[in-house]
Amino acid sequence: MFPAMRRSDKALPEREVFDMLQHCTSGVLALCGKDGYPYAVPVSHVCDPKSKKLYFHCFREGYKLDLIRQNDRLSFCVVERDDVVPEEFATHFRSTVLFGRARIVTDDALRRHALGFLRILIEKKLPLSLREVLAETVSILSTNATMKDPTEGVIAFFMDRLRGLLRDRGYTPDEIEAVLSQNPDRFDNLIERLDAVRAFAEMPEPASLAAANKRITNILKKSDVNTGQVQPDVLVEDSEKKLFTDMTAVKPQADQKFAAGDYTGTLKTMAQLHDDVDAFFTNVMVMADDQKLRNNRIALLKQLHTMMNQVADISKLAS
């Protein structure tokens, strides 16, 4: 289909071609123009050597896109070096010319690809870290000096698509936020966590526990003191002593269920602390004047907060 190089001894190995495409930041894109005239224009590009694809960014409308819609055949030339040698009346080039076909990728196409990727992770229960996948992709493209790390933007894009996917599956906004507000990096157990939140919300205890968790979150936000571990001998009120005792008894059960992937059982176990938490906030002044008492009570709430939010941030269920 394409003419062979006249100087085949100058042909570069494929690996060096892709090294050049990754190293260089722009090239000349040539399209089939109107009335038989070729149209060549300089463009920036990103190369993915694994898929052997090049990506170009442009405005949503324009002459390039009009031509691609009419004829998707193109060539792309990258010049890495052009050394003029006056004594030889010549220029020594190091370059590559590619031939291929273009496909216009729209936001809708990106959304479909993102949703497909998320569905694979969720439905196949693949234990893959999204950040690790993106880090590997960024490392492949890192030789492009003009590229900025897109990780945070891509994650935000995926999470946005994920919220829509979960809403379509019937989960409520509160249920979704309870899980996604913890910024999960893996999605293989996402549905189990959401189902656990839904089961928890149907119990009689969640409203007051969710409100208490929200209150604890606000208290901890205002306190940046490194309180360390709870000191049992500093607990003075009966309500805080009982809460600590019952937390100590419940924690191994909750941890065991969590480790086994029984997220519904984890939340139901934590619901046993419902009366203790209510009594604590009724009878105990967290922000006591005595600094030692105050710090110990904050340490107690930090431990409780960690236990309550292993599966999801249940404060999101508070009305």
Outline:
This protein has 319 residues and is of the alpha+beta class.
Tell me what the structure shows:
- 50% of the residues lie in helices and 14% in strands.
- With 319 residues, the chain is α+β, with helices and mostly antiparallel strands.
- The strands form two sheets. Strands 2-1-5-6 form a four-stranded antiparallel beta sheet. Strands 3-4 form a two-stranded antiparallel ribbon.
- The mean pLDDT is 89.
**With helices defined by DSSP (H or I, 4 residues minimum), what is the helix count?**
12
H/E series: HEEEEHEEHHHHHHHHHH
- Low-pLDDT runs of 5+ residues are none
Ends: how far apart? 67 Å
Briefly note the structural class of the backbone.
alpha+beta
Q: Tell me, briefly, the overall form.
A: elongated
Largest sheet: 4 strands, antiparallel
Rg (C-alpha, Å):
30 Å
